[in-house]
Amino acid sequence: MSPLSQTSPALELRAVRKSFGPVNALSHVDFAAYPGEVHAIVGDNGAGKSTMIKIVTGIHKGDGGTILVNGQEMDLRHDASQSQDRGIAVVYQDLALVECLDISTNMALGNLPYRWGVFLDRKRMDAEAAAALKDLNARVGDVRTPVGLLSGGQRQVVAIARAVRMNKPIILLDEPTAALGVQESAYVGRTLDRLRADGKAVICISHDLEFVFKHSDRITVLRLGRTVGTRTTADVSRDEIISLITGAAPADTLQEAS
Amino acid sequence: MSTTATAELAVQTERRDTPRTPILRAVLLRQETWLLAVVVVIAVIASVRNPNFMNPDNLVEILRGSVIYFIMGCGAALLVIGGGLDFSVGAIFTISALVGTSLISQGVPIVVGILAALAVGALAGVVNHLIVTYWHVPPIIATLGTFFIALGLSALITGGNDVVPLPADFMKLGQGSVLFVPNVIWYGLIVGALFYLVLERTRFGINVRAVGGNRQAAVGNGLRVVRIDLVLYVLAGVTAAIAGMIYSARVGAGQVEAGGSSVTLVVVTGVLIGGVSLLGGLGSITGVAVGAVLLSVIDNALIVAQIPPQYNNVVVGAILVGAVAVDHLRRKQLYKPR
């Protein structure tokens, strides 16, 4: 299945801009991710990858441009809970886990199960967390273990399991393999493969090109806050991506013109 | 998706890495355990020097003395667990009690007077929140500022005079007892139970720990952190107002000199001794209860044992420093760098 044959992108950015005071973090970012594809975003440090993801999730407010979710425009000044409501789940690079809370609480955070209106449904929370982790073949021990006691790889797994458990059509991952060893990276890769098979739109920021080539369908390259090109992974060489990242190859004129 | 057993190993934790803490160890790790030990030691020393210390009347007196600090400590503790801090509680205690008692002494129905006092406490909390959140003043400075403002206003409102006399019906609220237990202790139990439930059993309580434990993560998970902050500052103000009214009813006057910096310091000290972490996220209401009782025991024991009161501050200071050092050790156990 070619993702491009789908008519409507699950998540589309058009000419999104953002500056922090005098610093132009993003000057022109576009890309479109379709259901059932793993769309990688690559770029050098400072290319604007993390800023882009934070604008989509509402941590930062965009200055201009358009974000479309299933073809519907999303306010650039939305907050994090609105992006969840619109069907976007995120795995942040810093994972956004609360160290003093246990695994199951972290997995339900922002959406805690309750009884009688206000009381926490601890049993259901534990059961759901255990089921979600089991479903991903992730065994990180007792769900009542504080996240502060887990290793980096285990925390990454918990963060991914949390995003998967939300069962949203769009999943963004920011550098999911940055802190991981070879086997753990492979595990994350298989998880992405599975999300694609489930028809999710998976957007994965990474500078691990080996990982990107192994698991993505398309690659969008950012350089200095601009989208310089999007390529189908199967039709592009590693060298071409690297020259787009470094600027050795010119950016696609189509995007420069707009 | 096909998975292989070997690949699963990559993310599998061996059981021994994260064992359930054995019960004895868990008990020993709790701050309350050590505080209770300190309480027992002080009690033994005091009763050796003066057998009257163990007199039931004296024990009730100790509990009664702890209630004011405990009730204020509940609100303050929740705020500290949520990553905030309130140094203004001693002054909120004073100003809300003066407003409430003034109204009552002028013939306003007692219930209305009490509600007015709580409203003043809540308003003070809102002001603290606005200064911290929208003016970006660090909590310790913001609430120190409102501390002085509230204390100054208290003196202005009353012209420096205590509010007396108060109606007997109002004083009965602070002096009577039900089922042989003084009302004041009942108030402490009720407020404590409510705060315990809120912190340990509700979604709000978990969200408070999340905000205090890792604010950025809380924001990233869509928690409405500003709203949670607001509720926390309001609760700290309201519990200070409750304590102020209970104290006024107990002593039969709205006192200008009651509250103030000593109450603020004792409440914050009690909260920290009780194992609430200034860094947020960790702490319990039972810890605050033991902390408040400990402070009251020290107060009482030194008097009963006829030890000069100057020693009180020395002992409290030493316990405070020790308790916060222990908190740091607990954190090191709980968080390992990733």
TrEMBL record, chain A:
Presence of keyword Ligase: no
Pfam families referenced in this protein's UniProt entry, alphabetically: ABC_tran
Species name: Herbiconiux gentiana
Protein name (database record): ATP-binding cassette domain-containing protein
Keywords: ATP-binding, Nucleotide-binding
Keyword Transcription regulation applies: no
Domain ABC transporter: start-end pairs: 11-249
SUPFAM superfamilies in UniProt: P-loop containing nucleoside triphosphate hydrolases
Molecular-function annotations in GO: ATP binding
From TrEMBL, chain B:
Recorded topology in the membrane: Multi-pass membrane protein
Signal peptide (residue range): none
Regions that span the bilayer: 33-50, 62-80, 87-104, 110-132, 139-159, 179-199, 230-249, 261-280
Domain of life: Bacteria
Keywords: Cell inner membrane, Cell membrane, Membrane, Transmembrane, Transmembrane helix, Transport
Subcellular localization: Cell membrane
Keyword flag Cell inner membrane: yes
InterPro entries registered for this protein in UniProt: ABC_transp_permease
Pfam families: BPD_transp_2 (PF02653)
Main location: membrane
Protein name (Swiss-Prot/TrEMBL): Autoinducer 2 import system permease protein LsrD
